[in-house]
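re: ur question from earlier - yeah i can do the single chain one, its not a big deal. heres the input i used so u can compare w yours
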Amino acid sequence: MLDEDLSRLIPSLLPRLWRFALRLTANRHDAEDLVQRACVRALERPHQLQEGTSPLSWLFSIMYSIWISEVRARKVRAGSAAEWQDEAFEHLPDPRASDPENEMLHQQIISAVGALPDPQRVVMLLVAIEGLSYREAAVALDIPIGTVMSRLARARITLGERFAVTRPQRLPKGVRP
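and the output i got, formated as tokens:
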């Protein structure tokens, strides 16, 4: 991709980059900084975008890499492991929520996704929220596609358990309900 093409494409991707960064960082200031750093890095290194790779996936990959480095640096600076804190999570209102019950459910879902272990949460954000394919998410995170599928399955099970969604039991072979 040519430098000019990337420069023209990035503004159209900003809403999705912002949304991912906000969910990843759980802080508006950190999200703004993360989006800016990812865009600058992409514009400085357009030659690293491999042919056949989605620019959006590539930018998510850059963003995730920057964020992981930042989290590690913060842990070192703090001298202890950083914990995900629900209190720091900024809730965005759902414009489609028509009543308080829907709003409360929306907030519970955001909280539940935010409470997932980081590897599962990031895969859930990329696939379920951002709509990336398993392959695109695997490229963005630099992990095998099977790992994406496994993390997503575990995330879905965790969320299902949190909201008391039961999985259908398999009947023994040859037995009909």
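The chain is about 65% helix and 0% strand. not sure if urs matches, ping me
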